């Protein structure tokens, strides 16, 4: 019989083994994750006869949406063992995680799906994009990798570069240091630039299949981005915010899940007469109902019917909705 529960510290070894089995991450990254990010009390699993068969990790963070900061849960490492797929087990594990978020008064969760089609059955839709840039020319000078600056210096660049995005993690200086450790754990290298005597941009690159990939690259100006990218070796790929003015492939990067739809409507709209929607959520039943623009449950006829996942796209600003929700630039630098 399968049961569902929060993880405990003693589950760490089983959790690591499942991660190694289901994902292609390096052992050094997995070691970093379970040393620095593992949060058993906010992670959930399905268990059969003492064996974990499905798991979802949750890490509390802060997310900026439309200029407002919300408690949020980053979801990662969602995995089900072979032989247990297609039985609704993962969906139930995710429900337990989201139900716990509601109890903790965390109104939203987010993650970066490996395959969006898998999560469509949970009613999730893209809420952020990224731009994949590929270096197509050799740099004018041989690439020079830099010593890693202090977390404080990089944190200043991060804050300036990401303040305009909706759906982005609001880091603390301690979280910045943790992110640096993440980006270096696979032998990552750092490259930085200065403008007017101040740090203006940085990127972290790791070698993958004989070419470099940059998982985080941020700068405070168009010129800083161009200068930073021009220094990279041929065939380097870089994940960038979607509004960086370079030629690249735009792709959907992440989703945001509304845990408390009435609260989010109140915070992100707040005008009762702005809309009247019937919301349907196949995963979180407490989000179902007819709401006005302030998140109040109302009665009466309505002509607008939206799934919670679609409505979240409008709340984040990924898509505009009439004159109620404007379109925003949606990007999240964090993935784990």
How are the SSEs ordered, and which strands pair?
Elements: E1 2-6, H1 12-22, H2 27-36, E2 44-48, E3 51-65, E4 68-80, H3 89-103, E5 108-111, H4 116-120, E6 126-134, H5 151-162, E7 168-169, H6 173-184, E8 189-195, E9 198-208, E10 211-219, H7 222-230, E11 237-240, E12 249-258, H8 261-268, E13 276-280, E14 289-292, E15 304-307, H9 308-316
Parallel strand pairs: 4-5, 10-11, 13-15
Antiparallel strand pairs: 1-2, 2-3, 3-4, 3-7, 5-12, 6-11, 6-12, 8-9, 9-10, 13-14
Helix pairs in contact: 1-2, 5-6
Uncertain runs with pLDDT below 50, 5 residues or more? none
- Write down how many β-strands occur, each being a DSSP E stretch of 2 or more residues: 15
Radius of gyration: 21 Å
Class from secondary-structure proportions: alpha+beta
What fraction strand? 25-35%
Helix-strand string:
EHHEEEHEHEHEHEEEHEEHEEEH
Q: How does the overall form come out from the CA principal axes? A: globular
| Average pLDDT, all residues | 94
Number of helices: 9
Helix content: 25-40%
Distance between the termini: 31 Å
Main sheet makeup:
12 strands, mixed
């Amino acid at each position: 019989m399968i049961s569902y529960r929060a993880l405990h510290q003693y589950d760490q070894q089983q959790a690591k083994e499942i991660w190694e089995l289901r994902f292609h991450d390096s052992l050094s990254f997995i070691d970093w994750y379970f040393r620095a990010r593992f949060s058993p009390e906010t992670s959930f699993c399905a268990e059969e006869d003492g064996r974990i068969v499905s798991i979802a990790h949750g890490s509390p963070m802060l997310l900026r949406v439309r200029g407002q900061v919300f408690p949020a849960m980053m979801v990662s490492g969602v995995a089900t063992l072979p032989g247990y797929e297609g039985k609704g087990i993962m969906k139930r594990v995710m429900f337990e995680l989201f139900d716990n978020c509601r109890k903790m008064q965390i109104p939203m969760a987010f993650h970066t799906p490996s395959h969006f089609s898998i999560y469509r059955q949970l009613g999730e839709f893209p809420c952020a994009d990224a731009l994949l840039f590929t270096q197509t020319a050799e740099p004018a000078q041989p690439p020079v990798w830099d010593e890693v600056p202090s977390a404080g210096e990089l944190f200043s660049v991060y804050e300036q570069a990401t303040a305009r995005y909706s759906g982005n993690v609001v880091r603390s200086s301690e979280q910045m240091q943790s992110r640096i450790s993440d980006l270096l754990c696979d032998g990552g290298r750092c490259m930085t630039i200065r403008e007017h005597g101040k740090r203006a941009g940085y990127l972290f690159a790791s070698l993958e299949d004989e070419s470099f990939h940059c998982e985080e690259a941020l700068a405070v100006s168009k010129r800083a981005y161009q200068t930073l990218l021009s220094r990279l070796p041929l065939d380097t790929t870089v994940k960038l915010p979607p509004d960086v003015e370079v030629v690249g492939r735009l792709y959907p990067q992440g989703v945001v899940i509304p845990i408390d739809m009435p609260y989010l409507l109140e915070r992100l709209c707040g005008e009762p007469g702005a809309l009247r929607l019937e919301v349907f959520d196949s995963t979180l039943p407490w989000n179902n109902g007819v709401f006005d623009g302030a998140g109040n449950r109302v009665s009466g006829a309505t002509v607008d019917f939206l799934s919670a996942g679609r409505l979240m796209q409008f709340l984040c600003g990924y898509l505009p909705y009439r004159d109620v929700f404007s379109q925003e630039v949606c990007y999240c630098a964090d993935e784990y």
